[in-house]
Amino acid sequence: MRILVLGGTAFVGRAIVEDALREGADVTLFGRGRTGSHLFPDLPRLIGDRDTGDYAALRDGEWDAVVDVSGYVPRHVNQAMAALGDRVGRYLFVSSHAVYVQTGVGPGSDEDTPRRPPRRDTEVLDNDTYGPCKVACEDDVLARYGDRATIVRPGKVVGPHDVQETFTYWVRRAARGGRVAVPGHPDQPVQVVDSRDLAHLVTRLLTDDRPGAFHAVGPAEPTTLGTLIETCARAAGTDVELVPIPIDAAPAHFPLVTPRAQWPTRQRSAARAQAAGMPTTPLPITVADVLTWDRNRGEPPLPHGLSPEAEATLLATTTP
Ligand SMILES: NC(=O)c1ccc[n+]([C@@H]2O[C@H](COP(=O)([O-])OP(=O)(O)OC[C@H]3O[C@@H](n4cnc5c(N)ncnc54)[C@H](OP(=O)(O)O)[C@@H]3O)[C@@H](O)[C@H]2O)c1
């Protein structure tokens, strides 16, 4: 199978390329040539730029499928589709669980959950626009390719090479052991999908030439923030004491912390993706692999969470 990957050299796309190569696919990469330029030296690399709309490098060639992992706004997908036309068999768009409405969603919700209204009037991505822009991308891909379109909507993706590093915060924090400040409640549900499981879902959907929408969430068994932190501690051989602190005492957008009203959005059903072949790596394995990766790269500073000093101050001054 010949697969063109738009992106493919950062976190999610890299995992997809690695899985596709394991499955024996011929992979071509398209990107600016800036990220991960040391990766995949044997693969053809077409140079272009989605920001400026430069798709000239795609003027020749045919592929059984394109995986669009770097499309965020409708202009991205429309320009790519115009460049590729019918020289691709299937268009698989990597979307996000952020397309779904945020309220009125019960636990176990599936891919037929209502989506937010599409946004086409902005390319500035933030909490309000990211999901609606992905909705517009999905709609345009479906309108152009119909049954040859596949939509994959990941929840929080975790694993080695994670550029967002929110999961890494907890892996590293638990490895330090001791009293751990947990904003909100340790019983909060958490869904994280291992990047390698997501990647294998993508290649299976392509191999099986399967249309439709699939949200990719994990792990295998429902889990909570508290259990996740304890799993991280076990992987590192440490002991932790979870100390709940009020959400508003912690920095905003704290890693993996979700306000109670949105807990059901962290309890989506993985049934459709699993039936289509998505594996479910056990959480302890994902944690252990992230711990090893983070240590091997020398544990650079993380952009999220609390420093040890800030956490100690918070634990000393805050009562739940
Ligand atoms: N991480 C999560 O938890 C999560 C959750 C839900 C959905 N997702 C989705 O998963 C995808 C993330 O993919 P990713 O981790 O591989 O990272 P990404 O940052 O979306 O993509 C980076 C890749 O795209 C290329 N790229 C970036 N800007 C480009 C441009 N202007 N023109 C052409 N290529 C460009 C990069 O190579 P060059 O820099 O060399 O161009 C690199 O290969 C996104 O679609 C995101 O919405 C992620």
Structural commentary:
This is Reductase. InterPro entries: Epimerase_deHydtase, Lipid_A_modif_metabolic_enz, NAD(P)-bd_dom_sf. Residues 3-209 form the NAD-dependent epimerase/dehydratase domain. Residues 112-123 have a biased composition (Basic and acidic residues). With 320 residues, this protein is an alpha/beta fold. 32% of the residues lie in helices and 19% in strands. The protein contains nine helices and 13 strands. Strand 4, helix 2 (74-84) and strand 5 form a beta-alpha-beta unit. Helix 4 packs across helix 6 (225-236) and helix 6 crosses helix 8. The longest helix has 16 residues, at 130-145. The chain is globular and about 65 Å long. The N and C termini lie far apart (55 Å). The structure holds NADP nicotinamide-adenine-dinucleotide phosphate (NAP). NADP nicotinamide-adenine-dinucleotide phosphate binds next to helix 1 and strand 7. NADP nicotinamide-adenine-dinucleotide phosphate (NAP) is lined by residues 7-13, 31-35, 48-51, 69-70, 94, 96, 154, 156-157, 164.
How do you describe this structure in short?
This is Reductase. This protein is an alpha/beta fold.
Bound molecules: NADP nicotinamide-adenine-dinucleotide phosphate
End-to-end distance, in Å?
55 Å
The CATH architecture term of the largest domain is 3-Layer(aba) Sandwich
Please summarize the sheet with the most strands: 7 strands, parallel
Strand order of the largest sheet: 3-2-1-4-5-6-11
Radius of gyration (Å): 20 Å
Structural class: alpha/beta
Element-by-element helix/strand order: EHEEEHEHEEHEEEHEEHEHHH
Beta content comes to 15-25%
Could you name the CATH topology of the largest domain?
Answer: Rossmann fold
What CATH first level of the largest domain would be assigned?
Alpha Beta
Helix content: 25-40%
The dominant shape is globular
Number of strands: 13
Number of helical runs? 9
Identify low-pLDDT runs.
none
